[in-house]
Structure formats: structure tokens, C-alpha cells
Amino acid sequence: MGKILKSFLIVLAICLIIAIGLTIYVVVTILQIDKSQMLNLDKLNTINAQIKIYDNTDTELVTTSAKGNKTIGLSDLPEYLPQAFISIEDKKFYTHHGLNYGRIVKAGIKNIFSGTAKEGASTITQQLIKNTHLSSEKTMTRKIQEAYLALKLEKKYDKNKILETYLNVIYFGNGSYGIENAAETFFNKSASELTLAESATLAGLIKSPRTYSPIHNPQKCIERRNLVLLNMLNDEVISEEQYNLAVATPLEIVESTDYNSTLNKQILDEAMTILNLSETDISTSGYKIYTYINKNIQDEILNIYNTELENAILVIDNKTNSIMCSLGNCLQNRHAGSTLKPILCYAPAFEKGLLSPATPINDSKTTFGDYTPKNANNKFLGWTNVRIALAKSLNIPAIKTLEYVGVQNAQNFAKKFGLNFDKEDNHLAIALGATKYGFPILDIANVYSCFARNGEYDSLKLIKEIRDSNNKVVFTASNNFKQQMSAETSYLINDILKDSITIGTAKKLSNLNLNLCAKTGTVGSDNGTNTDAWCVSYTPEYTVLSWFGNTTGDDEKNLLSTQNGGTISASQSNKIWQVLKQHYNINKDFTRPENVVTLNLDSLSLQNQKLELASENTPECFITKDIFNKKFAPKTVSTNFEVITTPVLNLKKYKEKLYLTWEGLEYLKYEVHQIIDNNDKILTTIDGKNDSMEYSLDLPKKESEFYLVSKYKNMNTEKETISNSEKYIPNTKVAESDGVFKKLYKKWFK
């Protein structure tokens, strides 16, 4: 019994020491609250949140803060709106005095076992204090200060005043502070007009604006909204009928078209990744963010920005892979159309040596299983080559190439450049951009900036430096380029996409006089209109992306059938390049890798769908040039012109003229020989043509023999062939010629 008592006293002593220690710690922590952290009622209406954003010259671009935000009275809100926040954030709001001790104990136990202060157990009063008086750090010291100030606030303000103030300053994400601003940002209406479903949606955002964002994570947003509604049902503040109606309501978000708002969102999104902090934490910590944005360029391009249609513009400095201009919502996922063809189809084929720009490929109606695609204009070129197929953005060759490469291999290649596919994207239609979710506009732009850098990939960036509230640098951007495709493959793609401007779908850029590559893309709908129009163009220095589309799902707001990548997007891109040309000397061309070679090909072989090198006998008119990765260059030499075709010579006379006739070939030249008195002389040399040919002379007065010698045009070769010989003996019968007019009559009217 004595041992038990002794053990009990020891445990009691330890608990007493811990209690005294905790009490001292709490008292000291409270005493350490400085004047800036003391309860100040004036602070309650100006949330402690200010992010300053600067351009590339360190000039303030925009300040994001709650100061001056719109407010609304509690009595002006629908009754269910504040109740939504109480049900999900603080059920005992009207009964506690600032702290929920039961939740504190549970959270404390979890924190002890986890070794962190992750579990907050904050009441609405505590959240208000944290957002207006304290930093966002998750420490025990701050939690004690928060609890102390919350108790003091409860003695100063009544519950309704606390709730009203809270709703007017709390952060909802997307740069929105307060319920009135959030209602306008997400639903384009006043908070007084919010429905039950909309109110529950906003209440669900508070825990983690980014995680439950209706823009970035709509499915998680709906799940969180429905949890709020379930809590309200269980709290008996809404009926089962209201609950059922609200959970069945689709999520209908109206995004802001203000370019400052979308740019801020983009910058915050990148800052969250860099600092590994929530949007709320960043927004309440006084960070200064320095960006690569060129304010002067952006303001000029803003004059080109189309405010009547949904529009996004990006300009990238390829050297640093940084964004110097961003307008519109460049974070949104969109179906990419034909902009995927270079990276998903042709680049992986070039990388493995499966194809080259000159490879013959058949553009004809083809059925792949149960899939029968067609080209944009429903026309087919027949046998063509990869260069023309990509420059003109032909669909059938792209799908054939993807099938040849393999869907999984192509996806694995594209993933190296930041493109992620859904498991359902396991079909050939992805060659034309038919993926389940599409890709962020930013990611498509980044793919093309990689082509501009000869295959080097790095994450696209807006932010070059971040400083904390004490002006201490906490992040500095750096380049981490990685060679994800060979320079040879990249150069081949670039060379073809230059042709897109001269013979392909991006002709509206042809007047710029730049070493410019471009790829367009268009996504159509079942009713003949378009939902997306893309044009991505680039030089070694800059990449420009112009996108138009419709994100509403309302077909009436689609682009017209004439508004596609090659028209509306390419035209806007042209104007953007004109702005850039006024400020920069854009004159670089792409550097050809040593292993990219230009080879002479036999075009007659190409006509027969064979990729063969021209021989020394191949006539110049049958030589075509193209570039190859030396590693995969063709080795077979054409034998088409090893033997010269021998012509058949015929003699005819007409009146006092003798006519020598034969069927010619354009790649040959013909020497006309006459033997008279055993003397062989060349009468003339005639360049051949693919037609009937003739040579006329006065009727010889002596016996003569005629023949032809055929040689290659413009070739340093001794090869030749001799035709049959024909004799003419004066005063003997020779076949009469039809004459010029008779010959034309037969040719034209037979």
C-alpha cells in the first residue's frame, strides 16, 4: 500500500510540475504579446493580409489586401448563410465564450502525438483574431495568444457583431476577402442574393480555399459543399427538402474577366507551390512577390486583348522560361486540339528514328477499328510526306503516326514536358486533342518554349523572388533546364513548323519577317461551332500563345465556325508579335545541331513511296532536299536513273521540210546528229520535255542518216544512249507530216 501511495504522489507531483510549467508558459506567452498584437477593435475591419506584387523592374504591380473591401450587414444576409458557417466551423458559437474547450483537448492530444500544432480547434472568434491580429504560423505560442485575445474579444463584442465582422474579413481564396467580395468573385452577385447551395459552397472554402476551390477542384468543392449541407441538416437549420434540392444543384461558377484578378490568382498559385503554404497563410503573412512581368509590354498587349470573347494570352521569355505577360485565365484546363500533334505524335517518332520530315505518308480516308476520323475540310491529299502533313495539320497522318509510335509510348514522351493524361486517354483520338480533361493553357505554352530551346524543359515561372514581411529573401528563382528530347528532334519539328506559316495553317503570321515557328489548333463542337482556338508561335527568344474559347458550356457562346486557330488566334498573335518587334531586336534563327544534315533525295522514288537518296545520275529536276537526324538518315541510293531511256526516232516530211520526231523526257537533253558524206555532225542540242518533241530542217539534197544521243541534263556523267537511225534519200517517198495545224487539231479535238 505504501508503494502505491508513493507512486501516486510521484505522479501527482509530476502532473503538478507540468501544470505549473504550462501555467507559467501561458502567462509568459500572454505577457509577451506586444502592442501590435494587443486587442485592437479597429483592426477587426482591416484583415492582417497584404501581398505586394512587383513587376520585372521591381515597380509595384498590384497590392492584394482586404483594405477597402466591400462589407455587408448580418441582417442583410439570408438566414441560412451565416448558419452554414456556424454548422461547419463552430457549432457552439452562440454558447461558448470564445473557446471550445472540448475541441481544444481533442486537438491538443492530436498535436502531442504528432509533435506539431496542426490541429487548431479554432472557433469563429479565434479565426477572426488570427486573421486580423496575428501571424499565420502554427505554433503553440500563437495559439495561446489567439485564445487569450479571443476571450477578451468576447467581452467587448456580442456574438452577432463578431459573426458579422468575421464574414466580412475571412479569406475565401482567389484574392477574395469577405463574403460580399467572394459572392461577386464566384457567383457575380451580392451575398444577399446567394442561394443555399451557393452559401454552403462559400462556407466550405474556409478550411482550405485552394483544396476546395470551385475553379481548381470543382469535385472536391462539391463534396465539401454537401458536407456543409449535411451538417446544416443534422443541426436542424434546414429541412430535408432544402437539403435534397441544394445537393442536387450543379456548381455554376462565374469567373472574373478582370485580368488583374486572374494574374493575381496565377501568382498566388505559384507562390503556394514554392513556399509550401496555403493560400490563406500566404495572404495573411505580408509577403512581397517579385515577378518577371513586363508591365509596359503587358499594358500594350492589353490593348489587343479581346474582352468580348473568352481569351488568354501568354508571352514567354525562352531564355529564362519566365512569363513576361499573362492575360486571362491561363491556369484553366482546355482541350488542346491539334497543338498536341508535334509533341504527342511527331516528336516521339523523330526521337526513335521511326519517321523523318520527308517520309511518305498516305492522307486518305482510314478506319481505325470503329474510329473513322476526317480532316478539317473533309478533303484528303493522298500520298504526301510528314513535313506537309504537320505543316498543314492533317489529321489522318497524325493518327497513323500515333498508332505507329504507340499511345503509351507517346504519352510517356509527352509527360516529360509536363503533360499528364487520364487513364481513359488510351485511344488514338488523343492525337487530335481528344483527352478527357485537357491541359492547363500554361502547360501547352511551356511545351513550345521547350521546342524553342532545342528540347530543354523547365517549369514555367512567374516569380523571380519572394521576400517576407521583414524584407528577408525567402526564395530566388533559378533555371533547372533538362534535355528531355534531342536537339535534333527539336530542330526537325521547328523546321516543319516554319512551313506552317508559309504553306500551312498559320499563314496570317507570314508578313512578320521573323524566324518564326507556329502551330494552330481548333476544337469543334457537334453543331459546327468551335469551343477552343489556339495559336502558339515562337522564335528562339520568345513564345507567344493566343487562345480563344468558351468555358460556360453554353453552345450559344461558342466561337463561330470561322473563328479558329488559323484565323482569330493567329491574327491576335500577329498583333502581339508586332508589339514585341517594337521593343526587341528579334533576329535570331534556330541553331542547327551538327548531326542534322541536308540530303538529296530522289523524288521519283518518293513518288513511289520510297525514301531513297539521289544518285549521281539523278537529274536535278528529280532531286528534292530535306533535313535528317544523321543517326537515322536513309542509306539506300536510288537506281531509277542507272539506265537512260532510249528514244525512238521517226522521220516525216511536210512540204520542203524534214521533221524528226520522238517522245521526250524532261530530265534529258537530246543531241540531233546527221551523217552526210560519212561526216557526223551535231545539228542541235535540245532540252527535253515530257511530251512529243520534234526538230525540223530543210530537205537535205544528199543522202543523210539521222539519230539522237540522249544524255542527262546538268549532270557530270558520261552516260548516254543512242537512238535508232533513220535514213533520208532524196527523191524517195517519206511519210508526210500532218503539219502544225493538223497536229494541233488532233491534239486538242481528238
Rg calc: 39 Å
Helical stretch count? 22
Proportion of residues in helical segments: 25-40%
State the secondary-structure class: alpha+beta
- Widest beta sheet: strand line-up: 2-1-5-13-14
Q: Which CATH architecture of the largest domain would you pick?
A: 3-Layer(aba) Sandwich
Low-pLDDT regions: 25-31, 112-119, 744-750
- The shape, in one word, is elongated
Provide the residue-averaged pLDDT.
86
CATH superfamily grouping of the largest domain = DD-peptidase/beta-lactamase superfamily
CATH topology of the largest domain: Beta-lactamase
Classify the beta-strand content into a percent band: 15-25%
Distance between the termini: 132 Å
Number of domains: 5
Q: Please give the number of β-strands.
A: 28
> Which class of the largest domain in CATH terms?
Alpha Beta
What profile does the largest beta sheet have?
5 strands, mixed
